[in-house]
Amino acid sequence: MSTTTERDLIYDWNSLDKNASLSPRKKIQFLDETLRDGIQSPSVVDPSIDDKLRLVDLTNDLGIDTMDIGLPGAGRRAVEDVTTIAEHIRDAKLKLKASCAARTHVHDVQAVIDISQKVGLEIEILCFIGSSPIRQYAEDWDLPKMMKLSADAIDLGRKYNLPVSYVTEDTTRSRPDVLTKLFTNAVEHGASRLIVCDTVGHVTPDGIRNLLRFTRHVLDGMGRPDVGIDWHGHNDRGLGVVNSIFAIEYGADRIHGTALGIGERVGNAALDQILLNLKLLGELPDHDLSKLVLWCKTAAEATHVPIHPQYPLAGTDAFRTATGVHAAAIIKAEKKGDAWLADRIYSGVPAGMFGKEQEIEVGHYSGESNVIYYLKKRGHEATAELVAAVLAEAKRGNRVLTDDEITSVIRAQR
Predict the structure, then answer these.
(1) Assigned architecture for domain 25-303
(2) What mean pLDDT, rounded, does the chain reach?
(3) Mean pLDDT of the region 263-284
(4) How many CA atoms lie within 13 A of 258 on its CB side?
């Protein structure tokens, strides 16, 4: 922009009270669960190892800190895939760190240790156990047993100098007295992070505030402000993304998610949307997200999960319009020679920031400006007769015209 500034044209209610970053305590980190929690969805296909490696490379390119590369305790194929991915991270010298999920069972933990020892790569162990009363009741667990299982699993991982993060499943429905004992036990045995989980998508932002303040209070009371706090959210109430942003504001310093939000039931928090929002909030100045759309499309193809046309950023409709007044505003902005303006006049997400562009099409809600823009964009002379013919064809229908349909009108006019 030349003389007019962004502040002149966009009044940003999002930042009125924002005098500091969302997470002043520590740098925000991210953990990608696509290849573990994501592929637990009953609707996905477990990707081939080649597809998994492509996703690993793209995850690394996006500057995501850690990737859960699998649950080797699940069986032979999981062991083989985790080993291959670990070797790839090692050989390609990726910045991406590896982690593996493990139940609080020595068999699961040993499986991660064996791969780490074989490959010569540090792998963070994500030790999980259900902590809510409903889980305890269903599993017939008592607290002493849970604490022993947790301690034994963490001790084994630390014996081999691997970082261990302690995962309390269903944390958002767990009692504070139980969490205090489990958290304290885990940290005393060497856990370097506590992973707070909204396993069934139960919590609201108020609940996150209360739970994360409680968790930080427990750690501060132990004199352990160095222990990290992760947030792992699900999307059952449709709050997966916004809850993750609130979790950062309330003290979490590492956020979990999956590509496209794939996962059990209605899925995990969508990591691509979390990254998108944090970028727009100015929280990720050093992250190059130009491959974010490619990451989403690669995950969709690898897991056989189609991307809905109206899915944010990666959907085919994300930056398309056929509405006359919307298209006219974009065209007027372009005529001012202002690409910045044209990319934001009818879009809260600037397409160019993520390697895409605004698209104007022709449909039954379109006006002449749509047709003129469409024709000129594709090298056709926008004569009055041709514009009228294309617009008449559009008005006869009830949807956007396809390229082939418009081409037929152009040929008929010639």
Answers:
(1) Alpha-Beta Barrel (3.20)
(2) 92
(3) 95
(4) 29
